[in-house]
Write a structure and sequence with these properties.
- By secondary structure, the protein is mainly β.
- It has one domain (9-86).
- The protein has strands at residues 2-3, 6-7, 9-16, 21-22, 25-30, 35-39, 51-55, 60-61, 70-76, 79-86.
- The chain has a four-stranded antiparallel β-sheet, with no helix packed on it. It has a four-stranded antiparallel β-sheet with strand order 4-5-6-7, with no helix packed on it. Strands 1-2 form a two-stranded antiparallel sheet.
- The protein starts with a strand and ends in a 10-residue tail after the last strand.
């Protein structure tokens, strides 16, 4: 799969639940067709407060610079399945 010119290998999906953190995203609610929560900025400067965000199947969270990119692959009965997207070696690392 290619996103923004970067080719990723999609790993196995794993379930996550309300209150768990997926990369830089804290799950607050798992609805029938979306997942809402807070997205925390980690680069270039980490932020204490998260920004509200709604995810739909196919949306990604995390950063490609540290290989923490995760894709929402399914929503099932109170759980949200995310798969790791690996692009291989981190491209030059993340900004300071």
């Amino acid at each position: 799969m290619t996103i923004n010119g970067i080719t990723y290998a999609v790993g196995n999906s794993h379930p996550y639940y309300q209150g768990q953190r997926v990369s830089n995203f804290l799950i607050q609610y798992i609805n029938q067709d979306n997942v809402t929560g807070l997205s925390y900025i980690e680069y270039p400067l980490a932020m204490r407060n998260g920004t509200p965000r709604t995810l739909h199947v196919g949306d990604t969270v995390g950063y490609s610079c540290d290989n923490s990119t995760m894709m929402l692959t399914a929503i099932n009965n109170g759980s949200a399945a995310f798969a790791n997207l690996s692009s291989g070696a981190a491209r030059g690392g993340c900004p300071i």
